[in-house]
Every structure is written in C-alpha cells, then in structure tokens.
Design brief:
By secondary structure, the chain is an alpha/beta fold. It is about 35% helix and about 15% strand. The radius of gyration is 22 Å and the shape is globular. The structure holds pyridoxal-5'-phosphate (PLP). Pyridoxal-5'-phosphate (PLP) binds next to α5.
Length: about 425
C-alpha cells in the first residue's frame, strides 16, 4: 500500500505559534498543549493530524496513517471528498446562514432529496446527532399526547440496554454505561430500558403510555452489536400493534455503512422516524436530521422546537451533495463488497489474537484476546504500524474505514492488524 502525496502547505505551519514567529510545535508539544488547556473528557491516541485525503491522514511530522475510524462514520466518503468540498466552497461563496427566521434557497432541495433517499415524507434538520435524538424524543412525546391520547406527562419511551444516543443529560439519563452517566443526574424520567435483541422484552415493556421504541439497528459504540435476523422486523411489528412509534437511530449505521442506505433496509423495515447525523455532513459540517412520517413530524407547530443553525444553507448544500453521492448506490455497493473482504480478512484471526468479531457491511467490532492487551494498547500498536483505530469497551476495537478505501488499502490494514496480534 502506497501513500499518495497529500496536499501540503508547510508555510501554514502546524501550530498556532507559527504566526508569532515562534518555532512550530511538534506532535509532542501540541499534545502537551492540548492536555494543559482542554477539558480532559477525551484520551486521544498520540497522533496529531494535520492533513488528510480519502482514507489517508498525515500527522504534523509527515507520517501517514490509514484511517479506520473515519470520524466514527462521519467520514463515510473519506476525507475531503472532492464533490463535497466543491459543494461547500461554492456555498461559502454565496450564503452561509439565514436562521430559519427566513427561508433559504438550499433547504427545500436538501430535504426533498433526503426524504426521497430514505423513503420518508418529512425532514426536521438539526446539527448534531444528540440534537436529532432529543428532537425525536420531543416529537414522540408530543405525538403521544396529541395523537395517541396519553395523559399529560405520562409518556414513556422504550430504549435498549448498552445504547449510545449521545451526550445530553436526557440521553445519558437512559444510558446503561456508568462512565457516561455517573455524576450527571438528576435525570429525566420516562424511559424504560430493555435488553437489546430481545423482542419479548419489548413486548412486555410497551403499554398504553408508550410513545416510542428508540434503538440503534446495529449498536455501534457497544461494539458493533448486530441483532438477530428478524429483530428489526419484529420491533416494527410490535410497535405497529402497540400503536407506538419505532424510532431508528441510524446516526452511525446509516448512509451507506452497512451496505445499504439505512441498516433497517436490510430487513425491509420502515421506521416511523429515522435519525441521521455523522456522515450527513460529509465530514465537513455538523448536520443531523429526523426524517419521518408527515403525520408524526407535523405535531411540531411554529415555536415548539428549533435550532439557530439547523437547516442552514451551508449544511443543506453539503448534505445535498452527500445525498447525491448516495443516490448513485456506489457507496452502498462498496460497503457491501469491501465488507466481505473485511469479514474474510478477520475470520482467519479468530483464535489467533481475536476472540470473536461481528461485521455488518464495512463495519466491524473485533474482540481482541484480553491477554494481548486492552483495546487501547492494540490501538497504540496499530498506530505504530500506520493504522488508526479506536477501541470501544475493554478489548474491543471498532473498524469503520471510509467507504472509499481501496481493497489494497484494506488488505494492508488487515495485514497490520494480523502483525500486531501475532507479535503481541
Ligand atoms: C454518534 C452518535 C450519536 C450522537 O451524535 P453526536 O453528533 O456526537 O451528538 C447518537 N447516536 C448514535 C447511534 C451515534 O453513533
């Protein structure tokens, strides 16, 4: 695997100090600076990225790495996809923000294309994934009161254990991950947690107060947990019978990652609301959305919900270009085809450093033998081999390359993984 020459503008320097005429800071200096001035809510791998293209990133010393995290799937189309960068540049030169106090000439086209792509009717544009989840919680509750007739303040939402839906106080309140929750209460009531991949538990949890069942079609942060065949169709059937909404959080699983536009497509399931984020902004701007049924989203009247930046023309232009890429079907196809290469590359490692793994499209959760080290330590050894991955829990690493990665690059990364696991 050979690294291409990345666009470089060394005169810009690699740190803020260059402008003062001081010496540019190296990786170690920038990491020390970050550690002294940034709230310590992250523990990044010790690499300082300065530029990137496609599946490659380059650090401030000019070392190159294959990016197998792809911004937690925000970079499904790779770094700086030319079509997306072009759309952003063109929009930057025309109009960037109006707020929804006024209309803008980019929003309607974006929403029409996104609704058509996902087979839904209406779009509620937001910015981050957590905001899309919060918006869906609000919509589901309002729908429960206005349409289903649930008594005021009694609406419940059924969620799955080991979920990851974001970081706001309401959302971490129904997380089962103590690291995400502890110390942030008191939490909003109205959520019922059931085991994932357990239809009987959902059946038992829904009742006349249930506004929605909210879950990830594949649990990403939990370690790429793929439910049994028939689970999503079963959730659809139970929610239909119970007269509550099915809300699918496709913020990580959606937009090509699993080999189809949405992960629910693999079971021919149409949820009432679908949450999108991450890749919707093409790795350029934060863009999220709730897409869903007209009779559900229209419970939001003027003034009941909003966002200063939601639906801004720059986001809409980039989001529209993202939808344009997905309309070709090329990225979904690549994810499906390269997903087979990924699966076939991981299979021989079982028993040779890998305890178990799960894949869905170009997305894998790999449980490494804990005797070889934590996920973090494996990540550090892969970093030394020129491959970037992120651990999830314990000894599980997640592999989610840009869907633009070539087969050769993927083979190279898998060879590096095999080397790390067998030399451990
Ligand atoms: C990342 C993620 C979120 C939160 O998105 P942010 O943009 O970080 O707020 C929500 N749900 C899922 C499934 C995610 O993977």
């Amino acid at each position: 695997m050979t690294a291409p020459t990345l666009p470089s503008d060394r005169s810009e320097g690699s740190g803020p100090s260059r402008r003062d005429g001081a010496a540019p800071r190296d990786s170690a200096g920038l990491i020390r600076a970050e550690e002294s001035v940034l709230a310590p809510n992250y523990h990044p791998l010790p690499v300082v990225v300065a530029r990137a293209e496609g599946a490659w990133v380059e650090d401030v010393e000019g070392r190159r790495y294959l990016d197998l995290l792809a911004g937690y799937s925000a970079l499904n189309f790779g770094h700086r996809h030319p079509v997306l960068v072009e759309a952003a540049h063109r929009q930057l030169d025309r109009l960037t923000l109006t707020s929804r106090a006024f209309h803008n000439d980019r929003l309607a086209g974006f929403a029409e294309r996104l609704a058509a792509l996902t087979g839904q009717e209406m779009v509620l544009p937001m910015n981050t994934g957590a905001e899309a989840v919060e918006s869906a919680v609000k919509v589901a509750r309002k729908w429960a009161y206005d349409v289903k007739g649930v008594p005021e303040d009694r609406a419940t939402i059924v969620v799955a254990a080991d979920n990851f839906h974001g970081r706001t106080t309401t959302i971490v309140g129904f997380s089962t991950d103590d690291t995400a929750r502890a110390g942030f209460g008191p939490f909003a009531p109205g959520f019922r947690v059931v085991p994932y991949n357990d239809l009987a538990a959902i059946e038992a949890a829904v009742d006349a107060t249930t506004a929605a069942v909210l879950l990830e079609p594949v649990q990403g942060e939990a370690g790429v947990i793929v439910p049994d065949d028939g689970y999503l169709a079963g959730v659809r059937e139970i929610t239909r019978r119970a007269g509550c909404l099915f809300v699918a959080d496709e913020i990580q699983s959606g937009l090509g990652r699993t080999g189809s536009t949405l992960a629910v497509d693999l079971e021919d399931v149409t949820p009432d609301l679908v949450l999108l984020g991450k890749a919707l902004g093409g790795g350029i701007v934060p863009v999220s959305a709730v897409v869903g049924r007209r009779d559900v989203l229209q419970v939001l009247g003027p003034g009941t919900h909003g966002s200063t930046f939601g639906g801004n023309p720059l986001a809409a232009a980039v989001g529209s270009a993202v939808v344009g890429l997905l309309e070709t079907g090329e990225y979904q196809r690549r994810a499906a085809e390269l997903g087979i290469v990924l699966r076939d590359g991981l299979a021989p490692l079982v028993g040779r450093g890998v305890v178990a793994f799960r894949t869905r499209g170009l997305w894998a959760g790999v449980d490494v033998d804990p005797a070889l080290g934590t996920g973090r330590e494996i990540g550090e050894r892969l970093l030394a081999e020129g491959v970037l991955v992120k651990d999830t829990h314990g000894s599980t690493i997640r592999i989610a390359p840009p869907l633009t990665i070539t087969e050769d690059q993927l083979h190279g990364a898998l060879t590096a993984l095999a080397r790390v696991l067998t030399s451990g």
